[in-house]
Known about the structure:
With 458 residues, the protein is an alpha+beta fold. It has a single domain, classed as Outer membrane efflux proteins (OEP) (Up-down Bundle). It has helices at residues 2-19, 50-59, 69-79, 81-100, 142-209, 214-247, 272-276, 283-305, 342-407, 413-448, and strands at 65-67, 107-113, 128-137, 256-259, 310-319, 324-332. The strands form 2 sheets. The protein has a 4-stranded antiparallel β-sheet with strand order 2-3-5-6, with helices on one face. A two-stranded parallel sheet has the order 1-4. Strand 5 and strand 6 (324-332) form a beta hairpin. Helix 5 (142-209) runs antiparallel to helix 8 and helix 5 packs antiparallel against helix 10.
Amino acid sequence: xxxxxxxxxxxxxxxxxxxxxxPLGPVVLEPLPLGRELTTFQPSQIGGKRNKIMKxxxxxxxxxxxxxxxxxxxxxxxxxxxxxxFAYEIRASEARAIQxxxxxxxxxxxxxxxxxxxxxxxxxxxxxxxxIFSQTFLTAGKLQKAVSYEKLGTKVVAWDYEIQRVALxxxxxxxxIDVIHAQRQLDLLNESKNLSQEIYDLVDLRARMGDIxxxxxxxxxxxxxxxxxxxxxxxxxxxVQRIELASLxxxxxxxxDFAEGVLDELHPLPELGQLVAVINxxxxxxKQTVEIARQDAAIRLxxxxxxxxITGSIGYRYFNDENDSALIIGLSLPLAIxxxxxxxxxxxxxxxxxxxxxxxxxxxxVSAELxxxxxRLVQSYNAAxxxxxxxxxxxxxxxxxxxxxxxxGNLRYLDxxxxxxxxxxxxxxxxxxxxxxxxxxxxxxxxIGQSINSIEIE
Length: 458
């Protein structure tokens, strides 16, 4: 009996030691400066059931009325389905790290020998009962190395989330700019239609008074009808842009009425070298640095797996014929003769080399995108500034002077049409240049992970 009690206590101690593991907290990744102040969707630690997720979607309030850029960004970060998907992937990766921290389960076995035989083994007098408890002990720090590998994997997934977050911020800003651009374009074309209406009314009046041939009034209907067509097209384009914007926070229709924003602001541009100096903040590049560290951890883990684990066992055997008992102690160690995990170690080394190449590829891609975007930024900035100062004001003065001359009978109707067409085209060119400028600013800030205005202009 004393032996059995001793054995039970020992087995319990081994079992408890095998089950103990240090708790693992969530991996916290400091977000990039871009949009850091905004709250993002965070799933629960235990993961959510579909009904809970749908309840969250139902509790979400879509932006309504007049909205600002910050309202749109906050709504998208909280309710964008793709971003939420990446957030759950982080939780899943944390769960994999928890699983990697667990010891192998102990095993128990019960053997009954010398039963159901012949001769002296026909009955249970020669029965032998053996109870064995065994536990595999991981060697070479496999447990710690596996946890380190999985935690670095969680950081890689967290950088994937950051990539998606920055991309979403870029998309929401560019789409918000497109909505403002469409609103401004609609206002401009509405103004153009009003000008066409004024010209038509004036031509029709002069035709009825006999100052000009009646055919001039008929000809004046054409630009008026064309202005109406362009205005209707702009209305539909605006609605499309509004739906595109609302889709970024999970809506299929646009509930808001108006997007508030200013396109006419032009800020001094930094040098390309200043932007390149902070390119390492790009999440795609930063992710590869962590990926290289993860592959280093993978090599260490695979090397540790080449060292065999030890399995210890202890048991109790009862001899029925003599009413005696005895302890059984065993130790097993696989001989690493054929399988020394060579293939997995080599694979891990190739994956590490692959990670270095992926880092270089990310740096080249981001640098090229930044250089191309900077050229678009400079071109659109110069174009918008030139159109604002040197083109649109003279075109407006020319149109006003031409209209006054037509009203006085000194100029032809065609001169007024030409001046109005030139003014509208120049205004649209200015508006388009502003749109390209602001969209490119959003793209560059997404590439460097911070606001351009935070860079000191040299």
